[in-house]
Amino acid sequence: MIEVSQIIPYIFLFAALYFQIFLLLTFFENREMIGKRVSRTSTHYPSVAVLVPCYNEEKTVAGTVESLFSLDYPKDKLHIVIIDDGSTDSTFEVMKTFEYHPQVTLLQKENGGKYTALNLGLSLTNTELVGCLDADSFVASNALIEIVKCFDDATIMAVMPAIKIWNPKTVLERMQKAEYDMGIFVRKMFGIMNTIQVTPGAFSLFRKRVFDELGGFKEAHNTEDMEIALRMQSNHYRIENAHMAHVYTVAPNTIRALYNQRIRWTYGFLKNVLDYRFMLFNKKYGHLGILTLPFAIASIIGAVYMAGFVVINFANYMLEKIVKFQTVGFQWDGIGVDWFFLNTQSLPILIIFTLVTTLLILVNGKKLSGGTMKPSRDILYFLLLYGLMAPMWLTKALYNSALSKKSSWK
Amino acid sequence: MNFDDYRKYIFVFIITSVIFFTAFAISNYSDKKRIQNIQSIEDKIALDLLSSETQFNLLKELSCKAIDNSVLSQELNSIAEKLTYAEENLGVTNPEVIRLKKYYSVLQVKDYLLMKQVDQKCKQKLIFILYFYSNKGDCADCKKEGYVLTDLREEYPELRVYSFDYNLDFPIIKTLQAVFKLKNTLPAIIIGLPATTGTAQAGDETHYGFKSREEIENLMPILVKLKAAREKAQNTATSTATTTQKKK
């Protein structure tokens, strides 16, 4: 008699494989279109305001603003609004070095959270397009023009860029680089499928009328960028991805910082999806309601379950080794050359298949982000470490969500 | 959502299902290969046994030197490891595994009986242990005892270990239980010492519960003596070879 606990890993693996194959099929269907360099169909340059909310960003804000100055875009059409959200360090002093720059407006307010800073900027803006740029991110010079290209299509209401890791050096940063490259692939496919569920603070641009019609940013469990995307999707506002628009962000360089960041993201995602639960399994919302949102939730639960499954199996294996050691002392089992003892149960074979499709997504993501398809150390670090680390923050985020225990955004 | 979207969902479902079935097919194929591998070893043992039996029947006409008793031990060890692995991975209730276990039990009993007769007639130093275990989850120490016996078997090639699943629904097992008046207190080991030692015979010493390596060595001091003799012989052979080389 087969037990339910034996079937569950297969269900999660089937879901993971299904989703990855769906993305890969979407990619192969649209490969030519993705690879083609599209030139602008309009000579009109819409006016753009970029909001830069800051909270204790004294080290990075200058670089962020300088990168905006270097954007390949008419200067009179680009306005930069830097908002200090009650920083306690010298962020405002750094901001003041741009005080007399004709493109820049400086604002200062009491600390109230990122969304309040963005809404203050929005209230003083009347451009055709509005974007936000986190003060720990830097834009490539072509980023804005690549994004504006997408707005030539009147149905597009927001565009998110391709986010890359700034100058990755350590193993942790390189692991995140592979993850972000994979994110570029996934987001591009989400763009094609019209299922983008987050407009990141790293240089997503919106038509100003989105906020006029739907209202400003909300607190949204410290993930206002997810909430606005879901609000737009629930109102059938189209969000596109500009994978040629590169934006660089500084990655957390300690496990603790990464852990906290990801708990915040996952917690925010879960809570926002709960707020927009009417979209789940609702075909009115297309692939987002039927596939991507349910899968995103299933992947969090699945990752936690599979990690538990692996930990229990590993613990049993170690326990057996300890008993053996206590009974007959240390014995080198040797590296078996007999194929007979090779584990060819269906579960490990399916895990290998899933890893192969993950690898396909990773290398295609790497190519899409401007690199080559050659496997790199980043991918190796990702494959070795991510599966060990992610379940920790996913578990904590699930736990926090169950108890509604909010995580801080800094 | 349009018709093409639904078609894509179904198409992806088919691809994913094909991948799943491929994994199951690979797994199934390798399981079959494993069973075939065990069967081929069993066939070899059966042939070896037949050969030994024939040799034994010819004993009246042949000298004891013609009897080769070293053939089976290694094969039995190999099949024991593979059966354990098959039990863990294919499942203890797998009909093919059960069939193999029954066949293996018969081979062991035949080998045991034959070697006992060889021991009595040819006065060979035959040392064996009959080990009864359970893998129904009611014998916490069986796994440990298995480690000890595997370890001893590797250390002392002279030792033959015959292991039997106490709960195997098979007449031979029931007969062994009756012959040795076994209680259902596992693990149980029956120590068999050479007839030449004039001490215990198989069945005389049944031990219940976990026995450590040291305890078994104490129960079978001949093992240690044989090992010492074997090592001494090996050292002599090595030093002779070295001296001969130097002379050259």
Q: What do these coordinates show?
A:
- The complex is a heterodimer of chains A (410) and B (248).
- The termini of chain A are far apart.
- By secondary structure, chain A is an alpha/beta fold.
- Chain A is globular.
- The longest helix of chain A has 43 residues, at 286-328.
- In chain A, α1 packs across α6 (171-193), α1 (4-35) crosses α10 and α9 crosses α12.
- The mean pLDDT of chain A is 90.
- Chain A has helices spanning 4-35, 61-69, 91-96, 114-123, 143-150, 171-193, 208-214, 224-234, 255-275, 286-328, 346-368, 377-403; strands at 48-54, 78-85, 104-109, 129-133, 137-139, 156-165, 202-207, 238-249.
- An 8-stranded mixed sheet of chain A has the order 3-2-1-4-7-6-8-5, with helices on both faces.
- Chain B has 248 residues and is an alpha+beta fold.
- In chain B, 65% of the residues lie in helices and 9% in strands.
- Chain B has helices at residues 3-57, 71-90, 95-122, 142-155, 171-179, 213-219, 221-247; strands at 127-133, 159-165, 188-192, 205-208.
- In chain B, β1, α4 (142-155) and β2 form a beta-alpha-beta unit.
- In chain B, α1 packs antiparallel against α2 and α1 packs parallel to α3 (95-122).
- Chain B is elongated.
- Chain A binds chain B through residues 10, 14, 17-18, 21-22, 25, 283, 286-287, 290-291, 320, 323-324, 327-328, 331, 340-346, 349-350, 353, and chain B through 1, 5, 8-9, 11-13, 15-16, 19-20, 22-24, 26-27, 30-31, 34, 37, 82, 85, 89, 143-144, 147-148, 150-151, 212-213.
